[in-house]
UniProtKB/TrEMBL annotation:
It comes from Listeria floridensis FSL S10-1187. This is Transcription regulator. InterPro entries: HTH-type_regulator_Rgg, Lambda_DNA-bd_dom_sf.
Length: 136
């Protein structure tokens, strides 16, 4: 993963701007050179100011910083959006399996909780399906 300064330099070069133009009014050119070399940190507030001038969200900046790779959590969210319907049991089961694997790989509780909720939904859906079959 790239560092903040390296990513800012990349954005500046993509904008084809000088250090003075890119950071004008936010940080001095001297300080910008240190930031771009990752010798000094830039505050969150100033970073956001620089990004807002270019209509770049912080989320987009992080995506660029991670070399256009989604975070693990973003990937989970993408899987959820791909479901489109909770009626597709096969996709739900695949997502549950993915979440279970993530819960083992990551120490966070989020994956475990999502997997538990999804599992509960699958059990409920199965129960409802059995009730429908018996009612026929």
């Amino acid at each position: 993963m790239k560092k903040t300064g390296e990513t800012l330099r990349k954005l500046r070069n993509m904008a084809n701007e000088t250090v003075e133009e890119f950071y004008k009014g936010v940080i001095s050119p001297q300080y910008a050179y240190h930031v771009e070399r990752d010798e000094k940190e830039i505050t969150q507030q100033r970073l956001v100011q620089i990004l807002q001038r270019r209509d770049i969200s912080y989320h987009e900046f992080e995506f660029i910083k991670k070399e256009y790779q989604s975070s693990e959590f973003d990937q989970v969210v993408q899987h959820v959006f791909k479901l489109k319907s909770t009626l597709n049991i096969k996709k739900m089961e695949r997502l549950e399996s993915y979440l279970e694997k993530q819960a083992k790989n990551e120490s966070g509780q989020v994956y475990r909780r999502l997997q538990q909720v999804l599992h509960a939904h699958l059990v409920y859906a199965e129960t409802q399906d059995e009730k429908k079959k018996k009612g026929r």
